[in-house]
Amino acid sequence: MVRDRKRLIKKIFGIGGVVLLTTVVGALLIFVLLTRTNVGHTLVLERVLKRIDGVVNGEIVVSSLRSSGLHKGVRLIGLQVRAPDGTALMTVDSVEVEYTLSQVLRGDIVLSAVTVWRPTFNIWKSSIEDPFNLIKFLGGYEPTSEKVTAPEAGESAVRRLVLEDVTIRSGRLDVRYPLTSQPGSESRIVTVPAADGVGMVRTLDFHDIDGHLDRVTIVDPDFTGPRVDIDSLAFEGDVFRDPVQVREFDGTVAWLEDQISIAVETLRLPGSLTKGSATVHLTSERAPSLGIDLVASHLELTDLRWLQPGLPDAQGSGGFGADFGPDGLQFRWSGVRLEREGGVIVGDGTYNLPRGEMPFLQDVSLEVSD
What are the beta bridge partners of residue 334? Predict the structure, then answer.
């Protein structure tokens, strides 16, 4: 009887051991499949893209992927992000990203150590009445985090979609929107004929973008819209007839319903160093408007010749602001001190360039000393 009991116990433990071993081996095989094979990477990628589709209004397409193992990162080739109308919101030659299964299969999707090669961002609107394609992609006319769809069975809802430690190589940002009327001959802002030959389109082209972003928050219940925390960016902008060169920019860009708020911690031009803030107003049925307020600890006046080519050679400091929108351009300065050969100039004032009218100066006060 005792022997029979011992044999039964051994048999039970033997079966339990086999079951445990089978479970462990099966789990290891599944882990290897998902983290060490292209088939596994494809399954994970499809799962991630499906979950992202639940919080955006558009399509994300990847041509192919390469990897030597999940924990060594994966490279996505030919990435495209398409707006609801099928137009390309973003195209990327390749993206390299590091992540773990827990980072992409839980409620939050967090991708880290992201390197993006040759990304092109196209932020357009086809008519004054329409919202920008980015707003449509984010789920509606107001880009808020409320668009979190119910998950399917066995899946958790995406509450946060975040990219961390992002490096950009040779990027481009192309912003286009139609004008309600023909710009005057005095306008220095770049415009081109519309694709259909009817009307004019304003273009803001920022290219040769290189740098590092600490964090890109696409969806987060703590924010009303996307947010980008910038460590350092360098780029060139073709907004006016003459290009604007930015050697370094760091700060924060936050989308707040009908406006974009920009906190400028550092803005370094070839010879100038400034900080301040900017706001882009996205009022419906009107072209966007931009307001800038900066304080320059050191200013080379030649850095502003894209605004007015006739500015003299001078160095100094002070506060500067600009408002640019459908009604024209206004540039103002306060507490400015400029040094040039022959003396020092201290003053305040405003330079106005209304749409369709001649430019004029307003509230100008100057003091000149040796």
Answer: 319
- Distance in angstroms (rounded) separating the CA atoms of residues 21 and 16: 8
29-38, 95-104, 114-123, 162-171: least confident range: 29-38
pTM: 0.80
Q: How far is CA 98 from CA 46, 60, 229, 343, in A?
A: 16, 18, 19, 57
Beta pairing, strands 227-238 & 259-268: unpaired
Distance, in Å, from the CA atom of 289 to the CA atom of 345, rounded to the nearest integer, reads 31
Q: Name residues whose C-beta falls within 8 Å of residue 179's C-beta, 6 or more positions apart in sequence.
A: 191, 199, 200, 201, 202, 287, 326
With b for 16 or more beta-carbon neighbours within 10 A and e for fewer, the 197-216 pattern comes to eebebbbbebeebebebebb
Nearest to 171 by CA among 248, 93, 227: 93
Query: Of residues 105 and 177, which shows the higher confidence score?
Result: 177
Share of the chain above pLDDT 70, in %: 75
Q: What is the pLDDT of residue 31?
A: 41
